[in-house]
Design goal:
Number of strands of chain A: 0
Largest interface: A-B, 68 and 74 residues
Radius of gyration of chain A: 22 Å
Largest sheet of chain A: none
Helix content of chain B: 25-40%
Strand content of chain A: under 5%
Structural class of chain B: alpha+beta
Number of helices of chain B: 8
Number of strands of chain B: 9
Distance between the termini of chain B: 30 Å
Strand content of chain B: 5-15%
Structural class of chain A: mainly alpha
Oligomer: heterotrimer
Shape of chain A: globular
Chains: A mainly alpha (408), B alpha+beta (299), C alpha+beta (232)
């Protein structure tokens, strides 16, 4: 056994005890769950669950601050649009390893794919909570096709891509379950999945930006641009690389014993490599922002309050992490690269929130602020993703290689 | 390796094929000739704020009676259509001569509507004759139409367990029976004129031409966002009426079409590009592997 | 298009071209600046050892050596001679070696029998020979400076040169390649089962306890643990 997470199962133990409880008795397992973080998580999840029940009993109006003017809130803006951006680790890492042949990053591919799967899954959950008739969510797929709509293309791509992510991650599940044959068959198709996933991502990541092309009178001119799709695409690639750095850093801090020592040993080198890629993409993104600013013919607006907010986003959360990432990459300083990764992610979150919520309807009197219920549900969905990530990593070969299977 | 490539090719062909099928031309409205389109001309110089149109609309649509039906003061509030009032009349200041002006707001039934273009299930559809129809059986409540509509028309039933979008239907059922919309048929002063859109534009131009000092020389909705079915002429500034300015003449439905047109390109070029990269990378690895193997022999 | 403020369309497009060209020109030095990190990273993280050593988790194994389960290694030199030493696991297990007692030239050593002695922290632990033969050379440096076994166990830290007709046949039974890796894995796991969690964490961070792993597990009876693993 090469990993520390799997304890030696006692003879006669059930599949449940071995696979789910990792060899502990139910009582031992329950006791091991009592940690400060888990208590905090439980509170967040409970509050979110209550809010979700409330939403479905009393309706959206009772739980949210949405209005006839502000139709999209943080569930769309944060959970869906930002969540999908943060889930870009799947296509970026998979493309790097399986298409560009950068095999040295193979140890961290599954981190990206898992984070991607969870990001997209909880984006879908967020959608189910946010839309008026969630049971009709299959409609654009099976019932009525609004082909002129960007949202239609986003719906299709997200559905297909979620399938691809499941298929890409499935070998890890099969290794956990010991299903050798189906794992082999799945691995045969992996390059096809990865390519399909890259194509899907290169369509729907930009399309999330294209959604807002429909609202030129509502999105503040500094953010409204024909380049929105391109900027969303490039920043999603940044997000993919920095998410893997960030997630692996947090995992190393919070669940180090789920790592194999060999991955821990290689993590600095891999993180630095991802950081170099992120620095270059941030550089390109920065220039895209500059082009969009010039093309938008609203440089005079930089002198306004919104202009200051825009400059904060671009200079403080794109240029600054870019420079820090470049400096950290050049001097091979892992700590700086990690800080820059979190900083760049904050910038991407800020950008997505600006475009979808903050700078949207910037000029109306009835400005939108999320309600408590909206925060609780948004937070709970994020927490479920974190807890799910942790649950999977302790059991399935994401942070370690399964000893009985050849590493793919 | 070969097996993977075959699958890869299969998927990319499938992608290209579906791309070819996926993109029919946008809004059916373009197929309809201009000549057949219907519209309404709203001449606010004739509106007296009697709100008969509101009463007629609520009756025909089985909605509750308009708010404070007899109370004129309500006209001074900042009213917009709601989920239970598809059209509202507002007091919109006075003109240069001190006469009160009122404006009726409702769905504009745009020629190339943003909402219909944005709707991912075609719950909102532009019909040939003019009305933008809402199909409640398709709507899933995503509210993208509300984001897209520059006039803020669609109203969402946030308070309901099964919420729908509500808006003026242009009395599409009445029109199917050859009748006028309820509001235009009941208007006592002729502020609302229902008819062929081109004819109405001519009528509006005639009125402006005959009274150049009275009217603002612009028909709001003739070209805004590609043209709307409901058009306004007035003797005050349009923003005083609450009609948004700066909308441009490009059809709102077309705003995202440039971005969407990239999709078939990605689906066709993408597989080939990725395939090429993959082959390049594997060839590079092969060469490197040969080199390492050769080195190993020397050790 | 609506009014554009201070810029006309012509000057806008010109500026856009200028920005795009500047971007391309700046991108190359930026790329080189960032990529320099790759060399810096390699220099910082890779230990200065020969290319024949590989990391297998916490313990290094030399690719060109064969291993005896008692944690001695042998490198064949032709068919009748071999260089012999102690592996990385052994030196990490026992800790800082105070003195190494090596057999004299001409001594017979037998595979699996004690061949040399490690003096650590007042106690003595034997290690067994990986092959059978006669000692024809000893490493004076290892005797004078036992720390070389710690710093470079597979090259400068060699201990004995053993020759004889039985060297090659006995060497055939030693562990190499995947088998050696599997064996070190099992040895690691066996150790891990005895270790406290924070010791495990320290090892995962690359930090080996100063006094040796055996002493970190059991200060009093570390030599018994060591002898268990070293098969002496």
């Amino acid at each position: 056994m090469s990993d520390t997470a799997l304890t030696v199962p006692t003879t006669g133990s059930s599949w449940f005890t071995e696979k789910i409880l990792m060899g502990a008795t139910p009582r031992e397992y329950a006791r091991s769950l009592v940690t400060p973080f888990n208590l905090f998580a439980a509170v967040v999840l409970l509050a979110g669950a209550v809010a979700i029940i409330y939403r479905f009993i009393y309706g959206l109006g009772a739980v949210t601050n949405l209005s006839q003017v502000n139709a999209w809130g943080i569930w769309k803006g944060l959970n869906v649009i930002t969540g999908v951006a943060l889930g870009a680790g799947g296509y970026t890492l998979a493309a790097a390893v399986y298409i560009l042949g950068l095999k040295e990053y193979r140890p961290v591919v599954r981190i990206g794919v898992l984070a991607g799967f969870l990001g997209y899954s909880f984006a879908v959950v967020g959608l189910l909570i946010d839309i008026g008739q969630p049971w009709r969510i299959p409609y654009p797929l099976v019932y009525s096709f609004g082909v002129t709509s960007v949202l239609f293309e986003v719906a299709w791509c997200m559905c297909l891509y979620l399938t691809v992510l499941i298929l890409e991650f499935s070998p890890a599940v099969y290794e956990w379950l010991g299903w050798r044959g189906i794992r082999e068959r799945t691995l045969h198709l992996s390059v096809g999945f990865v390519a399909f996933g890259v194509i899907l991502s290169s369509m729907h990541q930009p399309s999330l930006g294209a959604l807002f092309l429909m609202a030129p009178s509502k999105l503040h001119p500094l953010w409204y641009s024909q380049y929105l799709p391109t900027m969303f695409f490039v920043s999603s690639a940044v997000s993919g690389l920095t998410m893997v750095i960030a997630v692996s850093t947090l995992a190393r801090w919070g669940m180090r014993d789920a790592f194999s020592p060999s991955l821990l040993a290689r993590l600095p080198h891999l993180s630095l490599g991802l950081g170099r890629g992120a620095a270059l993409l941030l550089f390109a993104y920065l220039f895209l922002k500059l082009q969009a600013l010039i093309d938008g013919h609203h440089i005079d607006l930089l002198a306004t309050g919104w202009g200051a907010w825009y400059l904060l986003e671009v200079i403080g959360f794109v240029a600054a992490p870019c420079l820090l990432m470049a400096y950290g990459s050049h001097h091979a300083r892992l700590g700086l690269v990690r800080v820059a990764a979190f900083w760049a992610l904050a910038g991407i979150i800020l950008n997505r929130m600006n475009v979808s919520v903050i700078a949207l309807n910037w000029n109306v009197a009835d400005r939108y602020y999320p309600s408590t219920g909206e925060w609780l549900i948004a937070g709970a969905l994020l927490m479920v993703a974190i807890v799910a990530f942790r649950w999977v990593c302790y059991r399935m070969p994401v942070l370690f290689d399964h000893p009985e299977f050849e590493a793919h | 390796m070969r097996l993977q490539r075959r699958t890869f090719l299969k998927l990319s062909v499938a992608g290209a094929a579906s791309a070819a099928v996926a993109m029919p031309p946008p809004a059916a409205a373009q197929d309809v000739t201009d000549a057949e389109r219907l519209g309404v001309l709203v001449d606010t110089t004739k509106c007296i704020g009697c709100r008969a149109c509101e009463a007629a609309c609520s009756e025909v649509n089985h909605l509750p009676e308009p708010a404070e039906a007899g109370d004129r003061a309500v006209l001074d509030t900042d009213r917009t259509p709601t989920t239970t009032a598809y059209t509202v009349v507002r007091h919109a200041g006075t003109n240069a001569s001190g006469e009160d002006r009122f404006v009726k707001r409702q769905c504009m039934h745009c020629v190339e509507p943003a909402c219909a273009s944005a709707c991912l299930v075609r719950a909102l559809e532009k019909t040939a004759q003019g009305p933008v129809r809402y199909n409640a059986d398709r709507c899933l409540g995503c509210r993208y139409c509300m984001v897209a509509c520059p006039f803020g028309v669609p109203q969402f039933e946030y308070e309901k367990a099964v919420p729908y979008v509500k808006k003026c239907s242009f009395c599409i059922e009445r029109q199917a029976q050859g009748l006028e919309p309820a509001c235009t048929s009941i208007c006592p002063t002729g502020a609302l004129t229902f008819g062929n859109r081109n004819a109405l534009i001519e009528e509006a131009k005639t009125r402006i031409y005959q009274n150049p000092d009275r009217y603002v020389h612009h028909i709001y909705g003739e070209h805004e966002v590609g043209g709307t079915s409901w058009m306004y002429i007035t003797d005050v500034r349009f923003d005083q009426l609450g009609l948004p300015g700066g909308l441009g003449t490009a059809p709102a439905a077309g705003y995202a079409q440039d971005a969407l047109s990239g999709v078939p390109v990605v689906m066709t070029v993408g597989p080939a590009l990725l395939m090429g990269l993959y082959r390049f990378a594997s060839r590079r690895d092969e060469v490197a592997g040969d080199r390492v193997a050769a080195e190993d022999h020397h050790v | 298009m609506e009014t554009h403020g201070i810029l006309t369309l012509y000057s806008t497009k010109t500026i856009e071209y200028v920005v795009a060209i500047s971007y391309l020109l700046l991108f190359i030095p930026f790329w080189r600046y960032v990529s320099a990190g790759r060399q810096n990273a390699l220099a910082a993280t890779r230990p200065a050892r020969s290319l024949t050593t590989t990391m297998t988790e916490w313990f290094e194994l030399a690719k060109d050596a064969a291993y005896h389960p008692g944690h001695a290694w042998a490198k064949l030199d032709g068919t009748t001679a071999a260089l012999v030493g102690a592996d990385d696991f052994a030196q990490k297990l026992v800790g800082p070696i105070h003195q190494i007692e090596l057999p004299g030239v001409g001594t017979e050593v037998h595979q699996g029998s004690p061949a040399w002695r490690l003096h650590v922290d007042g106690k003595v632990v034997d290690m067994v020979s990986p092959v059978t033969g006669v000692v024809t050379a000893v490493n004076r440096e290892a005797i004078d400076q036992p720390a070389v076994v710690k710093s470079d166990p597979y090259h400068q830290g060699w201990l004995l040169k053993v020759e004889g007709p039985r060297v090659a046949p006995t060497a055939r039974g030693l562990l190499t390649g995947d088998l050696a890796r599997r064996w070190i894995q099992q040895a690691t796991d066996a150790l891990r089962l005895r270790m406290t969690p924070d010791l495990g964490l320290a090892l995962q961070d690359g930090g080996v306890p100063v006094d040796g792993l055996a002493a970190a597990i059991d200060q009093e009876r570390w030599d018994e643990i060591a002898r268990e693993h070293l098969l002496s």
